[in-house]
Structures are given as structure tokens and as C-alpha cells.
Amino acid sequence: MSGAAPDRPDFDVAIVGGGPVGAVLGALLKRGQGGARRRVLLIERQLPAGAPAPASATAPSPASTAAPDDLRVVALSRASERVLGAAGAWAALRAVPGALGRYERMHVWPADGEPRGAGSLRFDAAEIGEPDLGHIVGNARVQRAALDAFIESGGVAEAATLSALEFDARSVSLLADGRRWRASLVVGADGGRSLVRRAAGLELETQDYQQAGVVANLHSERPHEHTAWQRFLGEGTLALLPLADGTSSLVWSAPRARAEALLAASPEDFEAEVTAASGGVLGALKLASGRAAFPLRRVRAPHYARERCVLVGDAAHIVHPLAGQGLNLGLMDAAALAEVLEDASAEGEDPGALRVLRRYERWRKGENETMGRAFDLLNRFLAFGTDPVGQLATRGMGLVGRSAPLRGFFAGRALGLGGELPRAARRAGS
Questions:
Q1: What is the rounded CA–CA span in Å between residue 97 and residue 339?
Q2: What percent of the chain is modeled with pLDDT above 90?
Q3: 361-389: string of b/e by CB count within 10 Å (b at 16+)?
Q4: Stretch 1-13: mean pLDDT, rounded?
Q5: What is the DSSP letter of 210?
Q6: Domain assignments of the chain as residue spans, ordered by start
Q7: 10 Å Cβ neighbour count for 392?
Q8: What is the pLDDT of residues 104-131, one digit of tens each?
Q9: Superfamily of domain 11-205+297-426
């Protein structure tokens, strides 16, 4: 990225982790200014089978082959849509029939309220002149579309498991499955148990919520109305997210013992419990898939960077999923880091220099920690809020629901259009 040296590393940037955040970062680096000359390696333990289709091919993109049993979905904001567009992944997602489930409204209500009662909170895209508030899509589909975009743009993807990092003054060496690569910068995009973070000696702070998120796809007696339904239960949060095929994705955050009981329940008992917990907002609910659960915790790295190493996405921060913003925050990390590295390249700076990486850290750390604290408070005082403070928060939700300006403000935040946005999130995606 700067002037060549006799011992120039194999790659300018090596990304460890081929999930949506790592793959989008790689695609942005290759498609941005100077990307054709930028050498980018992506290492992922298990790459999806199959090669990406040529850009001129008429067959469906491999993004259409996401496993149907993948129950993890993400709620993509407008800002994330634009970032995916800049990375070359949004067009592939949009081209696959049934890949994107748009949601035009969000409807939130407390445990002791009615789904459409006075204490509920409703956001509508029409109120702020938008066609929708975002899209619900399977995590595996986003990953595959982003990986295809990265490879099609000239990035190098290798299936390997990282075992160690070796740092020197000019580069970092990555050891994986008996192979070695050298890069000017290594990016940890390898999740909450990041090997890159540990190998680089970057610290981690963890808060275990003692909760689990139960996920499944559900048929409903009544249509979902392209609406994301969410109920604070007093012992967790239940969300029904609209999918393109008319079913809904369930994300039920509950105490761990309760979540285990829900997984162990018979299908009939589970369906009765989820119908009751949803307040019957969509009528009777029936399973359209299996069930799964994942532990909930908050994770934050006090430092995102050291010389020649930087963290993005879940490797740097994990937030409570009740607002569905985890991947959106990670994609903003990817876009911000790509922008910082692109600007540094234009100035002839070393991409692995700590002074460069600190610019990204200062930009993203404050926003991520603010959002993490906000979701923590929502979980504490609304999802589990039975004390006086929780009751006050519930009343406040009703006040927001009755104020059009406040509803518009929060709807704008849900679109991801607040704060200091990267260039890729400010311009329309392709």
C-alpha cells in the first residue's frame, strides 16, 4: 500500500474470519480506491462449498445456496444495506428470490400491556418517508454473498485454521495448518472467541447475562404484516421477525434454565408457550423448523488495536441481541476500517502502523460502547424490569409511542443513519 521494500510482505492486509464482517471488509478493500493493487488475504476455517459464479453468468449466485437449516437471521439497517452495496454483495442478495424479508414497521409492547394497546410503541417507515425500516435475512446468505463479492473482486480466500501470529517491526506472520503468510496488517474478524485477539495479547471484558436466545422459524395464523413484533416479558424478550416466505423468525431471549426447558419441550407444548408469550399477536404459532439456542453475553475489548493488528465486529464487541444491531455495528466497523486504510494508503502511510489503526479505534469504540450500554439498560429495565425503575421505563415507552417526533428519532436510529457514518454507509448501495 506504501512504497515497495525488498522484503515486502505477501499481503497488505490479512483478514482472519470469513463471516459477513470479515468478507465485507475484504470486498470493500478490493473495490475501493487503489483496491486493484491492494493484496488482501482472507483466512476462514471452513469456506462454503463451491466457487463464485463469474460476473457474466446467468445462473443464480451461490448466495442462493445458503443452508435452509440456518436459523440465525440478521436485521440489516439502511446503513448496512448501503455498505453491502458498496461491497458488491447487496445486488446478489436482492437477486435471490425470497432472500430478503423487508420490515416496514416495528411494534413493541410490555408484558402487562396489549399488543396494540396504549402502552405499546410503533415505528412506521412511512412516517419518516422511507420504503422500509430494513430487511431480515439469514446470516449464511449474507456471508456467502459477501465472500463471493470478495473473491470476484480479486481477493484471495484460504480455508485454514489460524494457530499463531508472529510480529516483527515490518510485518506479521500468520501460521495456519502448516502454512505461513506475511502481511503488513492482520485483522481479527474471527468472532467472540477470537484467536487473533488472544495471539495479539489484546484484553477482553465479558459480562455473562445468564440468558440464552432461542431461535426457530414459525408459521402464524395471521400474516406478519411486514412488521417486526417485540414483547418485553419481564423475564426476557420475544421477537417475531418477518421473513420473505410469510413465516416469522423467532428470537426469544430468556433465562438459561427457561431456554433449556423451551428446547426440551414437545413441539406442541413449545407452540403453545410461544403463542401465549407473544400475546397471540399473530394468532396461533406453529413450528416451521427445528429449534436452537445460543448463550447471551456482552463482550468488549478495551483496546481494538496494537501495532500491525486490529479487531472488528464480534472480536471487538458483542451486544445483547434484543435490538438486532450486532451485525450492523460490525458492518460499520468494516466500512470505517476500510475508509481509514484507504485514506492512509492515499497518504503513503503504513497500514499496520498503530497511529493509523488508532484513528479507526477512536472512531468506532465510542459508538459501539454507547450502543452496548444502551442495549444493556433495555435488557435490565424493560426485558427484566419489574422494579420501580423498570416500571418507569415501561411508562416512558408509552410516552415515546405517543410522540411523533420521538418515534421519528428512534426510527432513524433503527435505520442506522445516526452518528458519524463511513462513506460507504452515506451513499446509496448498488
A1: 32
A2: 65
A3: bebbbebbeebbeebbebbbbbbbbeeee
A4: 70
A5: E
A6: 11-205+297-426
A7: 11
A8: 999 988 888 888 777 778 888 888 888 9
A9: FAD/NAD(P)-binding domain (3.50.50.60)
